[in-house]
């Protein structure tokens, strides 16, 4: 996609929407609140409930639930929707459904009903929360065939509870009866379910229902052993995914039939793709069905940081659409490592997780476990964020992300390439690459490999971080993108496997890369792949000596130091001919027209120092290959796994090289530049007539070690944004500092200076 075509696309999009809301600092969302606005704008509850809350009830809470206090808390936090425990493992109302056991301290009262009526009276919507999947022993005794069993036929248990089987009447009959009972009595707006997808991938059920259903579909027995290369095991994986989609559909049919078309069942989903894989939740298919995604992704990990939350928002919006909502359960208690259900999460930690999620398009959902706490600090955390959110909600929804970099992913790659090592093979390369983008303040969007054709028009570059398992259709989409002049950055073993993880004899995109595998057996060598990805060797990458610039250091031998401009992707490396690497590379066959800019220096000893000299200073094994295609698209193929290395080792050289490659492949077509020190997560959006830039300050002593104890301000920041056709760039406003800022507009770009950012800032340029 050429910049001209993209501009035309943006212009068209702008013209189409500009008529809806006019230009300037007023949006569709603002008009929606306008009583004079057309009634056709009325949105269903799941499209307009922007702030959520959940007091996750424990079994003792019926004795001590201070409803009056919690109603005040709803009000204080401007909460519009609540998630209230209703049934499943235990019922929080007097249920007539056989074996639907009341909570231990319910004692005949109707806590769910009381809370539901109070919420409705206060104008809040209600998601009735289910927790299916487990039951007490008396239920197991009554219906042993509804429960999961292991290979030896023994029931699968979690503590004292027995785990129900997703293929049994527990899901087909028992849960629908409960859903209907709750709807008829209480009319909640919809349902969530904490553990609707049942047993995960690591735990096989061998019950009679599972064996019968799997045999009906495949003619086979349930595989006794995990073997990703066995077609039977792969069928078992797919069958499991399909069953969860079946449960999703059945529950939605049930709730809509009993409660009307807007009475939806929304389950619960994770912000982690490998988490979705482990739970057999097909994110693309779920999002195709969903009206709202209820996201259970409560806190960060040290390796992925707060920025993971913003990315989760962008990734899921890419699937479900930017017009829908994705509330996220955000723990107000100390969740993560370690977990303390009744202690407050340190306020800066909880706050930053919320803010980065909001920056990525998530809606806040405070979450407390238990209705009573002696650590009352947790009640203060949400309030200021929610108040700010309410004041500025029109800028936080109904917006289109602006980014020219598309980072391509697929759940199938996580399953069938990642297999049991998805973190190593799939997530680490992804994390390194996206971290390099965040560090360089380059806006990007995750794009599903099946949506490349649909989404390509907005992108200058597609980035494929070790996207090894790709279908023929996905390959064709990428090829079309490059043929039309799009840039491509691919790393590692991208396109070396088919969608089931079976090896191809060569990279399927070898002609675009300008490089081919030398050994056609390479794609099938799983053990070697895993070892190479795990180990750190004492290896280097040599910058092609023909392209040396200047030498100010000892000279050795007679080798001429040819002077000349180095390639743009080597910017910043003028004073070195060598980069630290750590990985191991195999020979490739390189097409004559392709350029090899980095070559592999094989391992040599580190210790003792006397031995630390290169035994083989030069090879022709490529570490980086640049190619250009007939359509003019720039292609960078990086066999060296610097994305994974950067994700793990955090060496700036690796991040800088990745950024250089992306900038080069994009032809510098990047709509944002932010100058000034600090680690900042930058999210850029467009609404009719204005741009919205959400900056989240990740700079802290706790950036890579939770929890953050204190926030550290950064600034001043000098920001330049490229203006779409309908944004004049004449006015600027900062929504956190709550002040106007002056803008300078020239050549289609607008400049703004932001003096200081503590946690986050939102600049609106209209
Ligand atoms: Zn089963």
Describe the structure.
- 32% of the residues lie in helices and 20% in strands.
- The chain is α/β, with parallel strands linked by helices and 766 residues long.
- Strands 16-15-17-18-25-24-23-20-21 form a 9-stranded mixed beta sheet, sandwiched between helices. Strands 8-7-3-2-1-13-10-9 form an 8-stranded parallel beta sheet. A 6-stranded antiparallel beta sheet has the order 14-27-28-34-30-31, covered by helices on one side.
- Strand 24 (622-628) and strand 25 form a beta hairpin.
- The longest helix is centred in the first third of the chain and has 29 residues, at 231-259.
- The chain binds zinc ion.
What form results from the Cα inertia axes? globular
DSSP summary, beta strand count:
34
Average pLDDT level: 93
- Give the end-to-end Cα distance, rounded to a whole number of Å: 27 Å
Structural class: alpha/beta
Ligand types: zinc ion
Number of helices: 22
Defining traits:
binds zinc ion; globular; eight-stranded parallel β-sheet; 22 helices; 20% strand; nine-stranded mixed β-sheet; 766 residues
């Amino acid at each position: 996609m050429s910049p001209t075509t993209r501009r035309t696309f943006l212009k068209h999009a702008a013209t189409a929407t500009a008529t809806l809301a006019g230009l300037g600092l007023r949006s569709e969302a603002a008009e929606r609140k306008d009583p004079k606005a057309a009634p056709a704008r009325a949105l269903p509850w799941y499209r307009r409930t922007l702030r959520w809350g959940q007091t996750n009830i424990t079994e003792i809470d019926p004795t001590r639930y201070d409803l009056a206090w919690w109603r005040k808390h709803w009000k204080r936090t401007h909460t519009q929707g609540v998630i209230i425990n209703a049934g499943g493992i235990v019922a929080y109302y007097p249920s007539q459904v056989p074996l639907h056991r009341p909570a231990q301290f319910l004692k005949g009262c109707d806590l769910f009903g009381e809370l539901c009526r109070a919420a409705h009276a206060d104008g809040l919507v209600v998601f009735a929360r289910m927790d299916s999947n487990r039951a007490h022993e008396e239920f197991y005794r009554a219906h042993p065939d509804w429960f999961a069993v292991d290979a030896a036929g023994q029931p699968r248990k979690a503590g004292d509870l027995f785990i129900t089987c997703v293929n049994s009447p527990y899901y087909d009959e028992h849960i629908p009866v409960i859903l209907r009972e709750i709807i008829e009595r209480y009319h909640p707006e919809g349902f969530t379910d904490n553990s609707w997808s049942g047993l995960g991938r690591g735990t096989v059920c061998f019950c009679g229902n599972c064996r019968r259903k799997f045999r009906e579909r495949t003619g086979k027995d349930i595989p006794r052993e995990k073997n990703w290369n066995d077609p039977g095991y792969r069928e078992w994986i797919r069958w499991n995914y399909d069953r969860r989609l079946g449960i999703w559909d059945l529950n939605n049919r049930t709730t809509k039939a009993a409660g009307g078309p807007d009475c939806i069942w929304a389950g619960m989903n994770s912000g982690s793709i490998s988490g979705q894989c482990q739970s057999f939740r097909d994110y693309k298919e779920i999002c195709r069905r969903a009206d709202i995604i209820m996201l259970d992704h409560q806190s960060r990990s040290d390796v992925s940081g707060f920025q993971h939350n913003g990315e989760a928002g962008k990734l899921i919006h890419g699937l479900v659409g930017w017009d829908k909502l994705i509330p996220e359960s955000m723990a107000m208690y100390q969740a993560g490592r370690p977990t303390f259900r009744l202690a407050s999460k340190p306020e800066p930690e909880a706050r930053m997780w919320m803010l980065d999620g909001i920056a990525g398009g998530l809606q806040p959902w405070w979450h407390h476990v238990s209705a009573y706490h002696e650590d009352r600090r947790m009640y203060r955390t949400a309030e200021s964020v929610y108040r700010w959110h309410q004041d500025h909600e029109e800028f936080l929804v109904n917006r289109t992300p602006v980014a020219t970099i598309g980072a391509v992913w697929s759940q199938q790659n996580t399953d069938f390439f990642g297999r049991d090592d998805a973190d190593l093979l799939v997530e680490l390369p992804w994390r390194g690459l996206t971290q390099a983008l965040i560090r360089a303040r380059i806006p990007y969007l995750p794009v599903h490999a099946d949506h490349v054709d649909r989404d390509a028009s907005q992108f200058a570059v597609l980035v494929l971080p070790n996207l090894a398992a790709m279908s023929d259709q996905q390959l064709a989409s990428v090829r079309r993108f490059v043929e039309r002049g799009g840039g491509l950055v691919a790393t590692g073993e991208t396109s070396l496997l088919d969608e089931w993880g079976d090896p191809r004899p060569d990279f399927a995109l070898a002609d675009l890369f300008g490089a081919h595998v030398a050994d056609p057996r390479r794609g099938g060598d799983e053990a070697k792949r895993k070892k190479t990805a795990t180990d750190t060797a004492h290896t280097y990458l040599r910058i092609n000596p023909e392209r040396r610039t200047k030498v100010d250091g000892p000279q050795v031998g007679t080798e001429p130091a040819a002077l000349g401009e180095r390639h743009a992707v080597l910017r910043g490396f003028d004073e070195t001919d060598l980069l630290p690497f750590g990985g191991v590379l195999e020979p490739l066959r390189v097409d004559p027209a392709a350029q090899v800019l980095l070559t592999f220096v094989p391992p040599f000893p580190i210790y003792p120092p006397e031995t630390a000299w290169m035994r083989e200073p030069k090879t022709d094994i490529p570490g980086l290959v640049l190619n250009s295609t007939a359509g003019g698209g720039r292609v960078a193929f990086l066999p060296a796994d610097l994305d994974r290395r950067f994700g793990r080792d955090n060496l700036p050289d690796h991040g800088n090289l990745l950024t250089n490659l992306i900038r080069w492949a994009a032809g510098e077509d990047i709509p944002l530049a932010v100058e000034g020190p600090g680690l900042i997560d930058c999210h850029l959006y467009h609404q009719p007539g204005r741009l919205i830039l959400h900056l989240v300050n990740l700079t802290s002593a706790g950036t890579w070690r939770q929890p953050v104890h204190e926030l550290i301000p950064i600034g001043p920041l000098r920001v330049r944004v490229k203006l779409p056709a309908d944004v004049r760039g004449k006015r600027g406003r900062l929504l956190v500092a709550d002040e106007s800022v002056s803008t300078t507009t020239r050549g289609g770009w607008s400049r703004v200076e932001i003096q200081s950012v503590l946690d986050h800032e939102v600049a609106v340029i209209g």
